[in-house]
Specification:
Number of helices: 5
Distance between the termini: 81 Å
Number of strands: 33
Radius of gyration: 25 Å
Oligomer: single chain
Largest sheet: 6 strands, mixed
Length: about 575
């Protein structure tokens, strides 16, 4: 009888195991280590006919692109050549067990002092899309920021049409004077800080501003093509509406999470958020150019920069060289400055893909529930002085559950890791408001906040629900809340006061949007859920820097899990000292 050509059961198992190892090796072989060096320098820049010395990375404004693939390890050596202390935050990167590389000064690290350096070392796990990096001490991120482009793994494709070209568009704010002087003066006097002098697109104000016709970003496109625009809001203090005249955009991603595609001719993007959109150009080159415009969304009582930045979308004309100066320039229609209705309707359109490849793993059950008020308040003036806050005896402040967070003089993560929390932070952050009131109605007579460095401790793998309730104290405003170390699911939002008995019934637990930054509606509430599966100390704060400076921030401490890969890694040897 002829010998069988089929392998034995044992041989089959060996072949299968070897195949598995080969696949694992190929997957890991595709991931590489990418090295970057960021030199923080002084750098003269002229905008609005005004030259000033800014702080920048590698003398670029905006800063250099950081490009990696999902699964890559990223090593960035940051060298500080300026007098200011500095740290860099990799906004939206999960930093699984690598909290030492997250970046917020006095939370996960002491800042990098003058003539010192620090190596940020992290792996991009299960993430792909558009994020950003920026300074995370005081207001230095006004000029120290740049894009982070995370490509899919090799041989992986986008879940949408492959674009002809990819373009990064970063929004920012330009100040004619040093932003550090602005916030320093505001904190001293208790007043609202002076506002920016312009908004920018890729560092350029655009032709609507004085002296800026040449400082206008131009995007040249071919007809009949699809472009992927990576939109990033790196502005300090303003949420922005954006539109391209006579063009429809298809939203396909938010905060590096793919979305169910939806079309819009205008969008809203808060500081810290990213939005990827597909732009399909017209089939033939039109006899016109089109303005791309961004201006603020604002509902508060204070002052704000009420101006508009523009860029120009120009079509290539292959057969005749028509001067772009002779083309009609078409302007887009943007929502009114205070269009809260548009803001709410737009954010509700974001839905996760929630399919087998990109599931929405929203916690269906919750271990711990929190109710946090977020909004403004006051601090009393120092004795025998007058202030310029809401009245001459108080300063502006901001808080979560009426606790205005005070940054310590050492890093919280260091104090936690070495068991030296005494005098650095406490773990008694209130789980709900200490004194309930009509949050979106008439506020309390006493608007003073409590100052403290308080945190919430969560056991590993706790499923968490947080209802963030906006208050009307000193004016209702939208607050874009950013959570470090995590994405969260936006399961609900509404106007007025959150109703624990009625509102949870309408939560979306099927395909909620997953984000790292989301706006708490002006005069309303936002409900989020996340699984505390990343040990360390994680900052949560309003991404309007003025509110962060006033204290609208807090910290979560997530304990280690039982497995080795569920524990915070030891601190690196070059961790900066305070």
């Amino acid at each position: 009888m002829a010998a069988s050509h089929f392998p034995s059961p044992f041989a089959s198992r060996v072949i299968m195991f070897c195949s598995f190892l080969l696949l694992l090796w190929l997957d890991n072989a595709a991931a590489i280590t990418r090295h970057y060096t960021f030199h923080i320098h002084y750098h003269n820049v002229t905008r609005l006919c005004h030259t000033r010395t800014i702080l920048s990375v590698n003398r670029q404004f905006p800063g250099p692109r950081l490009v990696a693939r999902e699964g890559d390890r990223v090593i960035v050596k940051v060298v500080n050549h300026i007098a200011n202390n500095v740290s860099i935050h990799w906004h939206g990167i999960r930093q699984l067990t690598t909290g030492w590389s997250d970046g917020p000064s006095y939370v996960t690290q002491c800042p990098i002092q003058a003539n010192q350096s620090y190596v940020y070392n992290f792996t991009i796990t299960g993430q792909r899309g558009t994020l950003l990096w920026h300074a995370h001490v005081s207001w230095l991120r006004a000029t120290i920021y740049g894009p982070m482009i995370i490509l899919p793994k090799r041989n992986e494709s986008y879940p949408f049409e492959k674009p002809h070209k990819e373009v990064t568009i970063m929004f920012g704010e330009w100040f004619n004077v040093d932003p550090e002087a602005i916030i320093s003066q505001a904190l001293q006097t208790g007043a609202g800080p002076n506002v920016s002098d312009a908004y920018t697109i890729n560092g350029l104000p655009g032709l609507l501003y004085n002296c800026s016709s040449k400082d206008t970003y131009k995007l040249k496109v071919k007809p009949g093509k699809t472009y992927l625009l990576r939109l990033i809001n790196a502005a300090l203090n303003e949420e922005l509406f954006f539109s391209i005249a006579n063009h429809t955009l298809t939203v396909v991603e938010g905060d590096a999470i793919y979305t169910k595609p939806f079309e819009t001719d205008k969008l809203l993007i808060t500081p810290g958020q990213t939005t990827n959109v597909l732009l399909k150009t017209k089939p033939e080159s039109p006899n016109a150019s089109f303005l791309m415009a961004a201006r603020p969304y604002f509902t508060g009582q204070g002052t704000f920069d009420n101006s508009t930045t523009v860029g120009i979308l120009e079509y290539e004309h292959p057969y005749h060289h028509k001067s772009s100066k002779n083309l009609t320039l078409i302007q887009p229609a943007l929502p009114p400055i205070n269009a809260t209705g548009f803001a709410a309707n737009f954010t509700r359109k974001f839905r996760s893909l929630a399919n087998a490849k990109f599931p929405a793993n929203v916690p269906k059950t919750v271990d711990k529930k929190f109710f946090f008020t977020v909004g403004l308040g006051t601090s009393p003036c120092p004795q025998n002085t007058t202030c310029q806050g809401p009245n001459n005896s108080s300063k502006f402040a901001a808080s979560v559950n009426n606790v205005s967070f005070a940054l310590p003089s050492v890093a919280i993560l260091q104090a936690y890791y070495f068991g030296q929390s005494n005098g650095v932070y406490t773990t008694d952050f209130p789980t709900q408001p200490l004194i309930p009131f009509n949050y979106t109605g008439t506020g309390p007579n006493n608007t003073n906040v409590i100052n403290g460095t308080r945190a919430v401790v969560l056991p590993f793998n706790t499923s968490v629900e947080v209802v963030l309730q906006s208050t009307g104290i000193l004016g209702a405003e939208s607050h874009p809340l950013h959570l470090h170390g995590y994405n969260f699911f936006v399961v609900g939002q509404g106007f007025g006061n959150f109703d624990q008995n009625k509102d949870p019934a309408n939560f979306n637990l099927v395909d909620p949007m997953e984000r790292n930054t989301a706006g708490v509606p002006s005069g309303g509430w936002l409900a989020i859920r996340f699984l505390a599966d990343n040990p360390g100390v994680w900052f949560m704060h309003c991404h309007l820097d003025v509110h962060t400076s006033w204290g609208l921030k807090m910290a979560w401490i997530v304990l280690d899990g039982p497995q080795p890969n569920q524990k915070l890694q030891p601190p690196p040897s070059d961790l900066p000292q305070c």
